[in-house]
């Protein structure tokens, strides 16, 4: 399986951030997955989690928060963090056309 498709999406008031969409052919779910405060979307734990989920038929969209994208140590304000999550859900919905998604796991529509 591929390590995923690299994407970028806009965050209102904070520019753009990177994302990785891993979408196995047999996906029945899509999980929009954020990193924690100490590590970005390419941390080995999140990469392994995305691979394990893919093997179970779960697609993932991992993404960066602006502070991590800009290599700052201080996390974003709550309003920027909220805008980032909203942008990730929009990006997942747009990129995975025909799928239902939200923060957390959502069933994919039958094709």
3D architecture notes:
This protein is of the alpha+beta class. About 30% of the residues lie in helices and about 30% in strands. It is built from three helices and five strands, in the order E-E-E-H-E-H-H-E. The chain has a five-stranded mixed sheet, sandwiched between helices. A hairpin with a 3-residue loop joins strand 1 and strand 2 (about 15-20). The longest helix has 18 residues, at about 80-95.
Helix content: 25-40%
Q: How many alpha or pi helices?
A: 3
Instruction: Detail the poorly predicted runs.
Output: 105-111
The number of distinct β-strands equals: 5
Computed structural class: alpha+beta
> Please, what is the average pLDDT?
83
Task: Provide the β-strand percentage band.
Answer: 25-35%
The main sheet comes to:
5 strands, mixed
The radius of gyration is 13 Å
By oligomeric state, this entry counts as single chain
Shape: globular
Order of helices and strands: EEEHEHHE
Terminal CA distance reads 21 Å
- Main sheet: which strands, in order across? 1-2-4-3-5
What's the topology here?
Blueprint: E1 5-11, E2 15-22, E3 29-34, H1 44-55, E4 58-63, H2 66-69, H3 78-95, E5 104-107
Compact description:
The chain is built from 3 helices and 5 strands.
Structural descriptors:
111 residues; alpha+beta; five-stranded mixed sheet; 3 helices; 31% helix; disordered C terminus
């Amino acid at each position: 399986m591929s390590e995923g498709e690299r994407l970028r999406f806009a965050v209102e008031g904070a520019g753009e951030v990177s994302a990785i969409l891993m979408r196995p052919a047999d996906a029945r779910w899509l999980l929009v997955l954020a990193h924690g405060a100490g590590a970005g979307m390419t941390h080995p734990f999140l990469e392994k989690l995305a691979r394990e989920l893919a093997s179970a038929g779960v697609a993932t969209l991992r993404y960066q928060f602006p502070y991590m994208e800009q290599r700052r140590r201080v996390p974003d304000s709550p309003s920027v963090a909220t805008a980032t999550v909203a942008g990730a859900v929009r990006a997942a919905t747009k990129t995975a056309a025909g799928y239902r998604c939200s923060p957390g796991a959502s069933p994919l529509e039958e094709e």
